[in-house]
Structures are given as structure tokens and as C-alpha cells.
Amino acid sequence: MDDRMRKPPRNRRKMQSVTMSDVAELANVSPSTVSLFLRKPEAVSGTASQAISRAIEKLNYVPNLMAGGLAAASSRAVSILVPSVRNAFFAETVASMQTALKKQRLQLILGHTEYDEQEEEELVRMALSWAPAAIVLTGLSHSPATRRMLTKVTIPVIEIWELGGPQIDAAIGFHHDQVGVAVADHLIQQGRRNLVFLGARMHQDRRAKQRCDGFLRTARAAGAVATVVEHPDTASAEIGSMLLAEALRLHPDTDGIACSNDHIALGVLFGCERLKVSVPHRLAVVGFGDLSFSAACNPPLTTIRPSGDLIGREAARLIEDHLNGEKTTGSRMIDTRFTLQHRRSS
Questions:
Q1: Which long-range contacts (CB under 8 A, 24 or more apart) does 69-73 make?
Q2: With respect to CATH, is domain 176-305 assigned 3.40.50.150?
Q3: Which residues of the chain are in CATH 3.40.50.2300 domains?
Q4: Which of 19, 65, 137, 273 has the most Cβ atoms closer than 10 angstroms to its Cβ?
């Protein structure tokens, strides 16, 4: 055969991916030691760890998390589902969880439900197919099918950001109706008697609705006039400005406003500046979230600090406890509480 027609020998590394056995051979350890290193590096001796690390780097080895040869490797991922990736509250929780779980060599898989229980159901079904180490959901309200799926699993199921209802396994968060109580009490203590709650998307955002209900109930019980003005779209500063104008049109005597979150409150402050409504002398404003801009507003925004970072750390702790073999019985509920940050807007 003409040498020009001969095919050059193929490099084995190019024909197939590097395996765990390849890493073990180069590091002069057993494949089970490599598997243990990938799952729990602190359990492997320093000499072996260094040899395995060098082999992984030299071979450019990437573990196949779905491979049966890597015992429990498919459970090194944690699925977390949040209503909105645009919401800074949830971003804080996800970031703190990722930081904490990284120490356990766990990775987060983030899903976005857009406050849709059917979307959450599909994401849960997909997540379970990957055999995650844990599933973290936002809130306590889920479709019947989601509940059925998750009551049968043996991994931790952690519901975050809400307490006060039936929980599947563990719940970490706070009572949102009590947020509304605290905001109403604060405004009444400031001498406000004509109150409005401004909310967005409360037909889907169950927790915002709970805050609204607690606010109205407490204000009315104290003898104040209290009502709600809402918009069906996602909360934003633009929506907040629109809601302010509507509230003042419908209720011109309004002297205190509670907002479903800080984005709405920011729009209210912008609207007050445009309409030349003095804050807080004419109108007191309270938000929810204590987002990064809240203390820098003009005037600085009184708001509720929900401790989203603590929620994330506590969720990570429960997952770590489970992986370390700590057994628990019965449902667990961790109240992270919240604080009212009193600033000049009220």
C-alpha cells in the first residue's frame, strides 16, 4: 500500500476520554483511592492526594458524574430552585450556599421556576434523574405531584424562605405575615394612620401576599385605614412609581406606604421626588429586602432585612450534616427571623 494512503496511528488519549483508571495508574494508587479523593479529599493521605492531583492535571481528567464507577459521584450536586434569578434576595442565598458547599466539593445546579408550580414540578423531576445530594426549594407551596415525588426520596429536601405551613422535610426561613405585622406596627408608631400596601405579582408571589395580609390585619386592628394597591407584573422601580401615583390618586390622604420589596420602594422614592412629595414628612415609606441600594437611597430606605445569606448557610449545614452521617428524625424548622432597618424614609 502506498505510504501516502496509510492512516497515521491514532493517539489513545484522543480516541477516548481519560478514565479514573488512567489517573490511578499514573498516580500509582488504586481506582478506589481516586474515587475517595474526588468525593472526600481530606480522607486521602497527603502523599496520595498530591500524586492524584498531579495526575489529574497532567491528564486533564474530568470526572464523569454519571458514571457508575464513581460511587456516589452522581450525588455531588445539589439542586436549588428559586422563583427568579433576577431577584437579589435569592441570589444572596444561592451565593452563600455555594460558598459553604464548596468546602464539601458539592456543586449547585440552579433552576428558575418563575413562580410557576408546574415549572417547578418539571425541574424537580429532572433534578431527581441526576440523583442529587439534596434538593432545595423556595417556599412551602408546591404541586401535588412535586410533593409525592419528594416525600419518597431519602435525600434532604429543604424548603427555604418560608415558615408556617406543611413542610416536606426541613424548612428554613421566617414567617412572612409577621413581616407585615412589624411594618404596620412601625408605621403606626410613627403616627401614620392612612396606610397603603403596594405589591407586584401577588397572585403568584405567595410570600408577598402573606406580608400584605399581615400588614392589613395589624393596621386595621390598630384603628388605621389600610388598603392595598397592586400590579400583576414583576416588581420593578418603574412599577413602584406607577403604584405610588395610583395610590395617591385613589387615597390622597395616604401618609404611610409599605412595599412588597425594595425595588417597589425605590420606585416610590423616585416618584415622590418627581411629584414633590416630601419623605418622610408627608409620606413614610418602608421596603423589604435591604438590597444593596437601600441604605444609599435619598432618603435612606427603611426596610426589612431577611437574612438571605443565613438561610443559605443553614441549608448548606443541613446538607453537610446528612452527608456526614448525622441522622435526624421528624421535620426540622429553623427560624432565621428578620430585622427592621429603621432609616430616614420613615
A1: 69/20, 69/31, 69/35, 70/20, 70/35, 70/38, 70/39, 71/35, 71/39, 72/39, 73/35, 73/38, 73/39
A2: no
A3: 76-174+309-337, 176-305
A4: 137
Locate cell 388605621: which residue? 224
How does pLDDT run across 249-297, given as a tens digit for each residue?
Answer: 999 999 999 999 999 999 999 999 999 999 999 999 999 999 999 999 9
Dig out the grid coordinates for 251 from the structure.
387615597
The Cα 172–Cα 333 span in angstroms is: 6
pLDDT tens digits for range 229-248: 999 999 999 999 999 999 99
CATH topology of domain 76-174+309-337: Rossmann fold (3.40.50)
Asked if 195 contacts 257 with a C-beta cutoff of 8 angstroms, the reply is: yes
Residues forming CATH 1.10.260 domain(s) in the chain: 3-59
Identify the pLDDT of residue 329.
Answer: 56
Alpha carbons 80 and 127: distance in angstroms, whole number: 9
